[in-house]
Amino acid sequence: MSSKAAPYLSPRARRRQVWLQIHRWLGIVLLVPMALLGFSGSLQVWPEETVALFNPEREVAATADPAMLNVDHVAAARAALAEYGTIAEIELGEPGTAIVATSVPYSPPQLGSRGPVARQVWVDPDSAETIDSGDTADFMSFMHLLHGILLIPEVGRQVVGIMGLFLVISGVSGIVIFWPGLRRAVQALKWQKRSGAMFNLHRQSGFLLSLVLIFEAISGAWISFPGFFASLIEPGVEQPQRRRPGGPEGTPMEAEPAAWMAAAQSAQAAYDGRLTGIRAPMEETQAWTVTMSSPGKTAEVTVPLAGGAPQVKEEVARQGPPPPTTRAGAVAGWMRGAHYATIGGFAWQVLVFLSGWALTFLAISGVWVWGRRELFGKKKAR
């Protein structure tokens, strides 16, 4: 009986083998969640453009102005939403966009979504025709939930945060495995003919985007565990409560198209600005809510159903959330902005977009390369 001695490995080679095992098994075990987090994150870099790409029927003329709302627009929206309930709100965006009317909720929250499901219709400002309809629980909201909580209620955000920490380890281990030294880095990135295309692409894309992926993983974990990371930046700081976006509380009342226009006209008489939205009167408040804008300012005009003078609440227009009041809040805001590429300019948006698709590709190609070597390599050796 003969035995074959194991080949000698230097301490450095043994360490590399350990990193290789970590990298390999993280990739195998976390293939599905990493692939899902990657492409769902990429789709959110340019959300408006993504929505337009998947919904070309919502495109209207560049000169079409939603603020020029009239009875025909409201009537078209009301007819399209008839089987889902009364209109709860009408949104009037910038010129070149459609009028969007939303019904009262008609279905409970789905797959961990933030609120009940309502129906929306898009109306062309020029023709007053309904050009599209769909649920508020649409494709992009599904992608947002997939990326934010992996569709897991209650603990999904924490699960995603843990995935982020594992991705940091995977990214670091990949760099350690690949790193040939500073002088040979460019040479090592060249296409290796003896290796398959999948392995070459895995090695090249992983190395080139590794730092972006590691940062996205860290910032994603930061978003998932805000309290923990805030305590590292500013021990003892009070954490603000997470705000859940949602519609106004109350029961919207049914109203004729002419009543919607009368509310809009009353608001325009009380405030000199552009219409941006109208919310149906609530049974509890017995008043319409009309939102308007003027240069550098926004206003909310309350129009009582029983008549009387409208009440105007004007504020300075602000883009995004209010400024942070603590150092930890400032860092958290920067992390969130960088993670979703809302700051950093176009170049950073491109890097984040590519890194998301790279993560999906790396998750799939890594398992593919491993499986090919394990299955086909052993068959050839027999």
From TrEMBL:
InterPro entries: PepSY-ass_TM (IPR005625)
This protein's name: PepSY domain-containing protein
Keywords tagged on the record: Membrane, Transmembrane, Transmembrane helix
Organism name: Alteraurantiacibacter buctensis
Domain of life of the source: Bacteria
Segments passing through the bilayer: 25-46, 159-182, 203-225, 346-370
